[in-house]
Amino acid sequence: MLKNNLWKLIASAVIAFWAVSELLPLKDVPFPAYARRHATAKPGEFGKLMDEAAARVKAGRAPAELVALKQIGNERKIDFTQYFPGIDIEVPKVVQRNDILFGELARRARAHLQPGLDLAGGVAFTLEVDPKAAGEGTDYARKEKLTKAIEIISARVNAIGVAEPLIRPVGDNRIEVELAGLDIKNNPDVVESVRKPARLEFRRVHPTLTPSAAAPDDIPPGYELMSVEDTNRNGNTVTEDLFIKRIPEMTGESIANAYYNTDAYGGPEVNLRMTSAGKKQFADLTRAIAAESQQTGHLGRLAIVLDGKLCTSPPNVRDEIPDGSAVITGLPSDREAINLADDLNNPLDLPLVVKQQYYVGPSLAQDAIDSGVRAAVIGAALVAGFMITYYTVGGVIAVVTLAINMLFILGVMASLGATMTLPGLAGIVLTIGMAVDANILIFERMREELKLGKSLKTALVAGYDKAFITIVDAHVTQLAICAIMIWLGTGSIKGFGVTLAIGVFSTMFSVLVISHMVMEWLIGADIVKKLPMMHVLHTEKFDFVKFYKPAFLISWTIILLGLVVVFQKGNAIFGIDFAGGDVVSVSYHQKLDPAQIHVVAAANRIGEVNPAYTSALGGGAETLNLETAPDQGAPLLAALQKAYPQAGLEKIGEDHIGPAIGKEIEWNALKAVSWSMVVILIYVAFRFEMGFAIGAVVASVHDILMTIGIFVLSGRQFSAPMVAAILSIAGYSINDTIVVFDRIREELKLNPQMKLRDVINLAINRVFSRSIMTSFTAFLAALSLFVFGTGVMRDLSFTFIVGIITGTFSSIFIASPIFYWWHKGDRKHVEAHADVAPKYEWTGSSKASQ
User: Fold this and answer.
1) At 84, is the secondary structure helix, strand, or coil?
2) Domain 114-197+356-360 falls in which CATH fold?
3) What is the pTM of this model?
C-alpha cells in the first residue's frame, strides 16, 4: 500500500514544506535587525556601517536605513555583497549589485503574506497634473487624459507587484494612489517609476566631432552635449561624452513591445521591438547612419535618450537593421530595467508631480477586523463540525484535507506576493465551504456502492472512479471562469479570481491525491472497517420535471422585478468604488474609532462611509478623511460633531473623488460575464453535447441575474468585491449543474429503455442529497460571515447566500428542464447528438456496471 502511494506521500510532503517556507516569516522583521542578523561576513564592520546609516536617518539625511546604506555605498564605492556571502549576485557594477542585494534583503525581511489596505493601511501619494500640460481643450478632453493616466499608472503599479492597490482621480487634476505592503521610505524610486513620463527618443550622434576633440564651448549647431556611463571589460564604470542631435529621428510611439533581459555579463537591459511602421523608420534610420559611416570613415552611432537622459549609444551601426530591434543597456538595477520596460509599454503623456506622500490607516475599524476574523473562524468550524457529524470518519479525513488545503492556498498566495484583505479572507472561507463538494460527491458515491452490498475497499475504488470525471469537469469550468476574472479584471476582481483559482487547484490535489491516499491506507490496513454516514434526505421517486413551469415562472418573475428596480434606481445602485463621492478632511482633538463613525452614519441614514486616518511621511498632524457618497460628507461631519462634541472635529478641506473602478473596468466586468458564458457553452458542448451546454448557460445567466436582482431589491450598493462575487456565482452554479448533467448522462447509458423524463428525474433524485449537502456546507460558511461579519464581508456573504440557493435551484429546475426541452423530451434525439449509447454486459465492461 505504501509503495503504491509513495509518490503521493512525497509530493504532499514537498508541497506542504514549500507552503510553510513561503509563509515564513509571518510578521515583518525591521530591515536593520534583519540585515545585522544575516551579515555573516565581517559583522563588526557591517555593524559600524549600520550605525552610521542609523545616524543619518536620525539627522534627517535619509528617510530609512536602507536608503542611507545605499548613499554610503555610492559615496565610498562599497560593495555590500561582501558582507552577505550567502547571496550570490553576478553583476559587474557595484551600484547594481548593492541595489539588487538591498532589494532582496528587504523582500526577505517582509512577511510574504501582507495585510491589505483595509486591514493594515499602507502608504499613499497624490500626483498632480500641471494644468498647462493637460492642455487648453474641453473639460471632456482633460478628463479623458486624466482617465488614460490612471489606466497607465494602474498598469505600472501592477507591474511592481503591489496587490489590490487603490487608484482613483481626486478633483479635476489629481490622482491618488494607495499601496498596501510597501514602504516608500525603503523604496523611494517606486513613486518616481510610477509617475515619470518615459519619453523615449532615437537620435543621431554627430558623425565626426567628439567633445574630447572640440573646444570647451564648441558645440555644433543643432546638437547638445550628453554623457553616458558604461562598464568596460574589467568591470569598471567609464563615462563617455557625445554630441547628440537635439531633434529626434524616432520616438517611443514606434515601439510595439519592450521587455526586460540580461546581457552577457548578467547586467540588466531592455529589449525593444518596433511596430510595423516603426520597423520601416528604424531600417531607414540605421541605413542612413551606416551610409554616413562609410562616407566619413567613422563609426556610425545611434543614441537612445529616455526622459532627456542618454541611456545608451550603440557604437557600431554598420548596416541597416530591418527587424526593428534595439537594446537599452547601462541601467543601474534589475528593478529599474523592469520598471523601464513596463513604462515603455505604458507611456505616460502627462507629466505628474508628487503633491503629497502620507501614511493611510486601515479603512476598517479594529472591531470590524476582529468580527471578520471571528466570522471566518466560526464559518470554518461550522463546516468542519457538520462534515464530522454527518460523515463521521470520512468527515474527519475531509476536515484534515481541508486544513492542508488551506495551507496550500495561503502558501501559494504568499509566493505570489498577494495581500490578505477582508474580502479575500471571505473568499477563502467560502472556498472552504465549496471545497468539501468533491469529498461529499465521493462519499455519496461510496454510499451508493455500499448500499449495493459491495465491500468498503471496492466501494472506495468505485466511488473515486465514478466521481473523478465529474470533479474534473466541474473544476475545469470553474477554473476557466477564474482565468477570465484574472484576464479582464483588475484590483480586487483579479485578486478574487486568483484566490479562487488557487483554491481550485489546491482542492483537486488535496481531495484526489491526499484524501484518496489517506482513505486507501486506513481502509487497506483495516484500520477503518466501516464508514458510517447519516442519511437525512430520502428522495427516490420525486417528479422534479413536473414543477419546471411554475419554477420558471416564479424565478424569472423575481429576476424581472429585480431588473426593473435596477433600471429604476440607475446609478444609485453603485457605491463609491463605481460612482465616486466626496472626501472631507477633518482635524480633531480626540480620535474617533471608525466603528463610532459607522454607528453615527447608520443612525443618520448616510450610506457608504470609508473613514481613514492619514499622516504625512515627513511627520505632522494626523487628519481624518471621511469618504462618502456625493453630497453626504457635510451631513456626516455635522452629525459627528453633534454626537461627539468633545472630539473637536473641524473641517480643513473637501474634495470630490472619482470612482476607483472606471468605465473600462465596468466594461471588462461585462465582458468577463459574457466570456464566461461562452467558455461554459463551448466546454460543456465539447464534454457533453449542445443541449447540456444550453441548459448550463441559461442556468448560469439565471443565477447571475437572480443574484443581482435580489441584491438590489435588498437595498445594497455594488462595490468592487461584489463584481468578483457575482462572477464567482457563475463558477458555483456551473459546478452544481455539471454534477447533475454528468449523472443524467450516466443514467442514460445505464437505463436504455427508460424515457428521457424518467431518466432526468432518476438522476436528480440520486444526486439530490449530494447537492443539498454541498449547498448546506457552503451556506453555513456564508451564513456565519453574514451573521458575525460587518460591512463588505456581509455584502459578500449575502451575495453568496443568494448565489448558493439559486445555484442549487437552477441546476434542478432550470438547467435540466432546458436540456429536456431542447431535445423535445425524446431520448432518441439525445442519443443522436451525444455519446450516450447504453453499454451492455456482453458488449463491454464498465466501472459503472460493476
Assistant:
1) coil
2) Alpha-Beta Plaits (3.30.70)
3) 0.73
